[in-house]
Amino acid sequence: MTETNTEHEKDLEKLFRIIHNVKFAMLTTVNEDGTLHSRPMVNKQADSFHGELWFFTQRSAHKVTEVKKGSEEVNVSYSSPELQSYVSISGHADLVDDITKKKDLWNDSLKTWFPKGVEDLDLALLRITIVEAEYWDSSASIMKKLYGLAKASILGDHS
Asked: Boundaries of each General stress protein FMN-binding split barrel domain copy (predicted)?
């Protein structure tokens, strides 16, 4: 049974609603030796969802080295126990240096991790282009797997 465009769009909206207000996500990258490495990341999503996740990082961070060495496949997981909702996202990471996007996503609470602010030359954005996502919504007793999110968001094709 195939999913209709409307159902797929509702699933994407549900995914965004779950992750939008989660304060921290866990980002998993692949180390140079092939092992997995996870770390918490401050969740800074835009106000609308276009099949991408955004995180601030330092260019000098180890995760950036992992992404630049061709291990750009990553996983991002979100947990909202109070809402009984959980998300696992697979995607491709790349480093973005766009001052306009940095300013759009920035807020002063990030100074805890990036005290020099948005103008810091070591500050960059890590963009995760979503390939596949799963969410579990225990309150509604459903698990949903979404495929092809990158293609759908880039091409505007939500079929």
From this structure: 11-156
Return d(Cα 52, Cα 150) in angstroms, integer: 8
Distance CA 103, CA 110 (A): 12
Question: How would DSSP label each residue in 7-49?
Answer: HHHHHHHHHHHHHHT-SEEEEEEE-TTS-EEEEEEE----SS-
Following CA atoms 20, 70, 103, 111 in sequence, which dihedral angle do they give, to the nearest 10 degrees? 80
User: Where are the chain's structural domains?
Assistant: 2-152
Tokens of 59: 């260019």
Count of CB atoms situated within 10 Å of the CB of 59: 14
- Write the pLDDT tens digit of every residue in 33-57: 888 989 999 887 666 677 789 999 9
* Domain covering 2-152 in this structure, CATH number: 2.30.110.10
SS3 53: strand
**Which residues have a Cβ under 8 Å from the Cβ of 53 and sit 6 or more positions away?**
19, 25, 45, 76, 89, 91, 127, 128, 130
